[in-house]
């Protein structure tokens, strides 16, 4: 979803929640529906980001195997080093490496806490 549309929907949700707190039951119902809708969008975006990390990581490992190299990734840093060498496109690097310590999606895939900003 375009960011401007997402921002508009979030503002609409804030207005509906304010009306709901003031006792407007119709606004409460609309706020609940809109909140679930926005949560489903966020979940879908999160899944796509996770899937992208998995595909790119798998491609890096397959490239190692294709070229006859052994795959030895004992820790997160080894994976980050491998991906740093393998990834060329800036968007792919951002998707996997983030600011250098791994993206949020990579941390989710590895079951780690989100990276600190």
Shape: elongated
Q: Helicity range of the residues? A: over 70%
Distance from first to last alpha carbon? 25 Å
- Counted up, domains total 1
Order of helices and strands: HHHHH
What is Rg?
A: 20 Å
Q: What is the structural class?
A: mainly alpha
Instruction: Please give the number of β-strands.
Output: 0
Give average pLDDT, whole number: 90
Q: Low-confidence stretches at least 5 residues in length (pLDDT < 50)? A: none
Strand content: under 5%
The helix tally amounts to 5
Biggest sheet record: none
Features:
117 residues; 74% helix; 0% strand; elongated
Written account of the structure:
74% of the residues lie in helices and 0% in strands. It has one domain (3-110). α1 packs antiparallel against α2. It contains five helices and no strands. The chain is mainly α. The mean pLDDT is 90.
Question: Concise description?
Answer:
The protein has one domain (3-110). By secondary structure, the protein is mostly helical.
Architecture blueprint of SSEs:
Elements: H1 3-21, H2 25-66, H3 76-86, H4 90-97, H5 104-110
Helix pairs in contact: 1-2, 2-5
């Amino acid at each position: 979803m375009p960011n401007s549309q997402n921002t508009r929907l979030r503002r609409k949700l804030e207005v509906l929640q304010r009306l709901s707190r003031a006792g407007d039951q119709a606004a409460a119902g609309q706020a609940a529906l809109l909140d679930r809708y926005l949560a489903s969008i966020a979940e879908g975006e999160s899944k796509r980001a996770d899937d992208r990390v998995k595909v790119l990581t798998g491609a890096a490992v397959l490239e190692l195997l294709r070229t006859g190299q052994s795959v030895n990734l004992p820790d997160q840093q080894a994976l980050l080093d491998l991906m740093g060498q393998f990834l060329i496109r800036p968007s792919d690097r951002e998707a996997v490496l983030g600011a250098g310590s791994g993206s949020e999606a990579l941390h989710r895939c590895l079951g780690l806490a989100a990276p600190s900003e």
